[in-house]
Amino acid sequence: MFEGEPTKKTRVAIVSLSNPFNIGARHLNSVSKVHGNDTHMFFVGAFQRNDIFPPDDNDIDILTDLIINETKPDVVGISVSCSAFWKASVQITESLKSKGYGGVIAWGGIHAILCPEDCIKIADVVFTGEAEIPWIEFLDRLEAGESFWNLEGTWVRDPDGTIHRNPHGKLAEDLDEVPFPDYDNDRKYFIANGKLERIEPFCIEMYSIFVLSSRGCPFKCAFCATPLILEDHKKGIRTGKFIRQRTVGNVIDELKYIEGSFPDFKASKDGTINFGDDVFVLYKDWVKEFTIEYQKNFDRPYWCYFHPNTVVKEIVEILAGTGLKYVDMGVQTGSERIRTELFDRTDTDEKIQKAVEILQDVGVGIVMDVITDNPFDTEEDKRKGLDFFLSLRRPFTLNYLSMIMFPKVRFTQRALEAGLIDESDIEQNRMKIFDQWETKYDYEGRSSDELFWIALYSMTGKKFMARWYLRMLANIPSLRVNPGFVVWSAKRASNVVWLSTRLNIFWRRLFKGQVSMRDIAYSFNKYRKIGLPQE
Asked: What is the pTM of this model?
């Protein structure tokens, strides 16, 4: 789709760290290509399903040598899409400069948006918001040899150290005008484990399409960075419409483009489509149109995010008939105190219970995100959380995410003020996602008590686990000191559900004639490599 010959002399490199799903970086890559620039995209550091690995010194050497000696861009854009990527971004920037790179090094991404005052000490330019519009003007100024010190949407550092803190730039009001994220296997480089492959990473393995049909979120969760940006909009510091929705036709066209870019994925029945919008169902008329067009064009399951407050039976019923496999609903904790007083959420226990009932009635699978390793959790919070999850209608699955202390967000500030964490725990210093993104049982930095509750909670949504039995386990003090048996039980329970689901899918497809020996061999090899869930 973006393979036309460059028409501009300014050459561009986009660097994505440990994240092949980096939609923001892929957008800038396609924007640059459409603009006529010779653009090369580098994916550095491994991402293997639920495991994220930072680029090592060899990866950074390969990247910087490739940039300086082969692709020779005039500007290198580094996506600091998570605060954990701060260290690698610094290493790449310093490596480029030490090897004599004379072009401009620009940083963007959520960490640059939150902490421009730190980023501008290292980078030449920092983009302080959504970058599509200011990026084009930036490239135009480079092309014309003009200064960009006053470019809106950026902070710029002069050679003498002077920093220009410019106003925020314009947002793309009509998201349909933004080119699709670039998935072409063209001028792409994947660098991990000291090895370079000149390939689009998803050409190696594509197991899920990830799409955003909108931008912005109306909710104000204290652990999230988005409310800080929303607050800037309310104060007039940032301008433009914050919550924006693409048209259905534009979303469908992107899905067709991505699916068509990966023939093996298109031919497979295993992969899903994931809608990563903070809230997928804000507008009922949009949902109705989407379901009609989706059914016309795709025969593939998908999932999306719901907030408990947005679960409406009419909407869920519409989506359920079009391939909605499950809903991922953030509840974050079973403690209403933590949820409302510390996470600043408005979903009460009653609202969540009602949402679960609606989803169960309609027959849509339920996954609920729960945050672990919260330093504010008390014994009472954990016991109330257990009672709450045991009160919900089954089945459901809890998806655990370890608490990450992102800089400047309200929850991090509260934890600092309470003395529960210090500066070393903030993510650009801690880099916790490399150890603990989705919660794992073998994480060494967790207390036996926390591990006990995680394992116990994970069994609450399984129909075959008796509620009285789980309550009994909660009252055995020795298990909280040595939770090995509870962890073992939780793993086995997850394996039972996983195997049952896979066998059900297998037999259903077998009787429909949709299973070949190639499919069986592929599935066997795939799961032999990654193991069973929770192992």
From this structure: 0.92
